[in-house]
Amino acid sequence: MSNYIDNLNWRYATKKFDTTKKVAKEDFETILDAASLTASSYGLQPYKILVIEDPTIREQLKPFAWGQSQITDASYLIAFVHHTTFNEELIDNHIEDISETRGIPSEALAGYSDFMKSKLMPLSDETKAIWAAKQTYIALGNVLSAAADLKIDTCPMEGFEPAEFNKILGLDAQNLNTSVLVTIGYRAEDDDTQHYKKVRKSKEKLIQYI
């Protein structure tokens, strides 16, 4: 556990990536495994993880991420995109996955299915979208931690224009919205940000025991 905390202290939001260093495919797959294993409400994972590899598309996206160099210079760019609305199919598909994975007849899961539908289906589209977007941040946290554990650098990014990203990535027609980005690679030696002392609230200020 001490190594894990040391690695979290080592990580920072990398502002400049070394374009000559590429994250190994095997390591990147490990990071994606961590993302896919992320906890989510009811296990529904109401989002997709887009790995944007095409350099042309990344160049198109860059102006709508305030021109930040990480978009094009990092080894990988990931966009977490969430459902802006959903219907019972989201739950039905999850029930099918549970049935196949655990060898349980879908009929035996009907009660659980009905419970999820009773809680989620009455929600407005706006509330559904907010709920789904929250789930992406749990996955983002896992990506940041998994990468740090491999001594791979990341930068979580909210500094972008979702509507423009949605257009370029063709998300509107899929009822998807870009929630948050993360760039993955190796820090450049001249990225001064890596030398800044990490600033966090003390545990005494942050944590309250009741």
UniProtKB/TrEMBL annotation:
Do the record's keywords include Oxidoreductase?
Answer: yes
Q: Which UniProt keywords apply?
A: Flavoprotein, FMN, NADP, Oxidoreductase
Lineage of the source organism? Answer: Bacteria, Pseudomonadati, Bacteroidota, Flavobacteriia, Flavobacteriales
Family listed: Belongs to the nitroreductase family.
**SUPFAM superfamilies (alphabetical):** FMN-dependent nitroreductase-like
Q: Which cofactor does it need?
A: FMN
Q: Looking at the keywords, is NADP present? A: yes
Q: Where are the transmembrane segments?
A: none
List each copy of the Nitroreductase domain by range: 9-186
Protein name (Swiss-Prot/TrEMBL): Nitroreductase
Which segments does the entry list as coiled coil? none
